[in-house]
């Protein structure tokens, strides 16, 4: 059971439609409410759940997260910078978690065209584009080849 919409809470704003990477959240033309048109194709990424300002979307968590028969609700609170998770187990117990939102101010991400074209040498680097500057660190942790079999300590 992937995401589903409580139609009595949904106001048809369409945020879930815009954010769904699988394009399966649609607005019902008659009722003007969102619904998941193809639950089998749901990635269970919960992007729609987090984006919904009405807290109208419910979903199933993974079995290793909570056993069958539970519900997972999330509430995105931008002012607090948090996402709250509420898991309700089938025996009525509830677990609440709060995690920080990764916030990036609008317009703060520079487009690729603003960066210099990487050199041929840079193309061989293991670093991704704009690393390490974009991560706000001086350098990424590195491991000497002779330690590959030992793993990181
Ligand atoms: Fe789309 Fe992800 Fe929501 Fe599934 S959980 S409907 S894939 S946004
Ligand atoms: Fe309805 Fe929430 Fe989707 Fe808006 S984001 S259309 S309120 S389910």
Helix content: under 10%
Major sheet description: 3 strands, antiparallel
- The fraction of residues in strands falls at 15-25%
List cofactors, ions and other ligands. iron/sulfur cluster
Mean pLDDT: 84
Number of strands: 7
Strand order of the largest sheet: 5-6-7
Q: What form results from the Cα inertia axes?
A: extended
Q: Count the helices. How many?
A: 2
Q: State the separation between the terminal residues, measured CA to CA.
A: 41 Å
**What structural category do the secondary elements indicate?**
mainly beta
- The tally of structural domains comes to 2
Please name the CATH topology of the largest domain. Alpha-Beta Plaits
H/E element string? Answer: EHEEHEEEE
What do these coordinates show?
The strands form 3 sheets. This protein has a 3-stranded antiparallel beta sheet with strand order 5-6-7. The protein has a two-stranded antiparallel ribbon with strand order 1-4. A two-stranded antiparallel ribbon has the order 2-3. The two termini are 41 Å apart. It is extended. The protein has 153 residues and is mostly beta strands. It contains 2 helices and 7 strands. A hairpin with a 6-residue loop joins β2 (25-27) and β3. The chain has helices spanning 15-19, 47-51; strands at 4-5, 25-27, 34-36, 57-58, 71-77, 82-88, 94-100. The chain folds into 2 domains: 3-100, Alpha-Beta Plaits, CATH 3.30.70; 114-145, no CATH class. One iron/sulfur cluster is lined by residues 2-3, 19-22, 24-25, 36, 42-48.
